[in-house]
Each structure stands twice: as structure tokens, then as C-alpha cells.
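Data availability (excerpt). The following record was deposited with the supplementary files.
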Amino acid sequence: MPRRNDIRFLLVAACLLPAAPAMALPEDSQQPIQVTADNARFDERLGEAVYRGKVQIIQGTLEVNGDSLTIKVDGKGQLSTARTVGKPAHYQQKIDPDKGLVTAEAGEILFDNVNGTITLIGNAVLRQDSASFKGPRIVYSTTRKQIEASGSPGERVQLVFPPSARGAGKPAINPFGGSSKP
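Predicted structure:
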């Protein structure tokens, strides 16, 4: 019989990514969430769950892998943030039925449910089909469908747009949805 804390721990895991439908296929949120790790700890007082060792999260087309995952929930049990760290951490999800998987990797992947952003930090790469963004830091707003890539003194941002995403004399098309201004 599961203990009360075990049940709460599972509830926190269940809160992990249902808020991501803003950028996911609708059917992903209807799928079960599977979290595996070598060990896990939940602190109910802090509203924090920490998974360590070969962490993997799967829900529908969503898959996240890393060395550790820290989940923070608010007082109502709703997901605030999820932070995955790895060498590198990996993320993939199908966000548009007409396009390929969005894949990302970085030293750290931070999902901020409150602001609707995914931030990739450290050797960040974001890809979909043959388009890609690379740089030290990439922020993707799931609500505004905007991508911001930041460089550093030693590392510039690299954007690759396939020929099919560009029209003669037209602004570049953002391969992750919407149009972007030059």
C-alpha cells in the first residue's frame, strides 16, 4: 500500500508537463506521464521534487532526458518550473502535426510554466526539420511563439534557415511557427 508521501510524490510527477500543451499536440496532454530515474526525492514543504540519474520523462510525443530534473510546484500543486540538467540534456516534442519533431539540447533546459518559456542554457541547439538555432542561450516563448538566441563574447549565434523557409524578397519565415522580421 503506498504511503501518503509516495502518493503526493506521484502527484507532483503527474503535474510535470500537462501545462505544456501551449506548444504540444493536443493529444500529448491526454497521455500518461512516465518519469524514470535512479532515485527521487520530494519535499512537500518546499513543493520540490528532485530526480537524479538517467532521468527520462515521456508523455505522448514529448521526451526529456538528463542527469537530473528538479520540479517546483506552487501552493496549489501546479507546476511552476522544471529544470533538467545534463551533458547535454535533451528535449523533443512534436508541436505541429504538419512539421517534424522539435529537438533541443543544452547543458540546462528550464521550463517556466508561469511565463510560458523554455530556456536552453549552455551549448544550446534548437532544431526542427532542417532549420536550427545555436548559441550559448536560446529562449523559446511557447505563448508568443517567439525565439530569442543570445551570443556571448566568445560565441556567436548561428541561425540556419532552409531554402523552403525563405521567399524571394519576403521576410524570413520562422521555421518554428509564425513569421519573423529581418
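Summary of structural features: The domain at 4-165 is CATH 2.60.450.10 (lipopolysaccharide transport protein A fold).
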